[in-house]
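As a warm-up, study this chain.
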Amino acid sequence: MGDEHRIHELARGDPFSRALGIELEEIGPGYARVSLRLSHQHMNFLGLVHGGVIFSLADAGFAAASNSYGTRAVALHVSVDYLRPPRPGSRLEAEVRKGAQAGKMGHYLMEVRDDSGETVARLSGWAYHTKRPLEEGIV
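Now compare it with the structure written out below.
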């Protein structure tokens, strides 16, 4: 089974992503695209989409992209800039691309857009790439 297929199957089975409704749309080396249709369960007490939902969508893509090489990678740091609130009920999409490699660390850029194409958030993160296979235990 190829690395992309293995990580696709592993990511699809992620319990947290499934609970939120996150779908893995596309994956390639150092790249992933994930989506989420917003519903009432994604809202905060102000009636806005919870920032944690936006972050989690991007993080699911980050996990898929950073693990797309067939070996375990774990997040070291992620920063987020929320740019505008998405409309309730809209479909969000996060696109993640590896921008640089520094030794065992990879730097990834994440952009979350709503279904009108407007950027909702931008994130930047570092992942530590191990040599361990995806199926092996904790790093």
